[in-house]
Each structure stands twice: as C-alpha cells, then as structure tokens.
Amino acid sequence: MAIETPDAGGRIPTDHDAALDPGPGTTGRPARTLAITRGIRRGFVQRGYASVAEVSLKNSRRADVLALGPSGDLVIVEVKSGPADFLSDGKWPDYTGYCDRFYFGVDADFPQHLIPEPIGLIVADAHESVVVREARAHPLAAARRKAMLLRFAIVAAQRLTRLEDPLMPVA
C-alpha cells in the first residue's frame, strides 16, 4: 500500500496550500486545476461530503477527487483545466468502476458540450462549485465498495497524521 510522500519540509502538500501559495510545496498541478479542485471540494463540504484529492486506485490511475457522501456513496471527479486537457484524456472510463457516480469538474470557461451526456458535470472556481448535470448512478459491488472505503479512510488518516506530526518517519 502506498504511503503519501511528504515534501522537503516533511508535510504532505495539499491542494489548499497550492491554490493559496503556488510556491514550494505545491503538488505540481497548474493553478487553474488547483482552483477547480478547491472549489469542487468546497462544494462537496456544503453537500455533506468528505473528500480527498489525488487518490491512487488499484488500476494504477489516480482520482483527482474522491468524495464520500453521508449515505456512503463514493464519487470521483476528474478535473479538466481546458478542452485540450479533456480531448487528450482517454483514460477517464477507467475511473467509473471505482465509484457510484463519476463527474468531470471544469471551470466556467470550459465548453460544456464536450462532456458526454451520461457523465456528470460540475462547474467550479476556487471558491465554490455547482452540479450542472447529475451523474448516472452505477452502484459499486460490495467488495469494491469496502476496498474503496478503506482506501479513502487510510489516505485521509495518513494525511491528517502527517499534518499533526510532520516529522513522522515514512514507512
């Protein structure tokens, strides 16, 4: 199981840090992507969800945002900074087997007609987000749900622990 890697200062960099200060300790993601991600995560909080960013999946993909809802539903959001980013990405169907609902997250300037109809759409800026189109539900099998819930809990706990104890040795 992968352990999240701290930056040079011993901390796990977060999207919040990078969106506010794109200097040392950022995740290396473009500022536009960080702003969209931040707004999406804020929107999830308003809807009663908890979320973590950049979560590795068993299929070697990494979800931009994995959110856990109050009823135990799992949502993945793939953030796209622009049309070129979306059009060059053929891997997004690989995420749908790891969530109950799948969305693309974009900003207000993104041409929304590019997003295929059965996929959910969230429009965000650095401060908030709006679900423009709900994603179709495709409930996970029980074994996959359990594995994803454990993955969510472990990633979130590791990141919290490193925030509380930045000098903790990495296993």
Give the integer mean of the pLDDT values: 87
CATH C-level label: Alpha Beta
- CATH architecture, by name, is 3-Layer(aba) Sandwich
Task: Give the number of helices.
Answer: 4
| Low-confidence runs of at least 5 consecutive residues | 1-26
Compute the separation of the termini in Å: 10 Å
Largest sheet: 6 strands, mixed
- Name the structural class: alpha/beta
Helix content: 25-40%
The third-level CATH topology is Trna Endonuclease, Chain: A, domain 1
Strand content: 15-25%
Rg, rounded, reads 16 Å
Number of strands: 6
Strand order of the largest sheet: 1-2-3-4-5-6
Overall, the morphology is globular
Number of domains: 1
Reading the helices and strands in chain order gives: HHEEEHEEEH
Question: What do these coordinates show?
Answer:
The longest helix is centred in the last third of the chain and has 23 residues, at 142-164. This protein has 171 residues and is an alpha/beta fold. 33% of the residues are buried. The model is unreliable at 1-26 (pLDDT under 50). Helices cover 29% and strands 21% of the residues. A six-stranded mixed sheet has the order 1-2-3-4-5-6. Strand 1 (50-56) and strand 2 (62-68) form a beta hairpin. It has a single domain (30-164), classed as Trna Endonuclease, Chain: A, domain 1, CATH 3.40.1350. The protein starts with 14 loop residues before the first helix and ends in a 7-residue tail after the last helix.
Mind sketching the topology for me?
Blueprint: H1 15-20, H2 31-46, E1 50-56, E2 62-68, E3 74-79, H3 83-87, E4 101-106, E5 120-124, E6 129-133, H4 142-164
Parallel strand pairs: 3-4, 4-5
Antiparallel strand pairs: 1-2, 2-3, 5-6
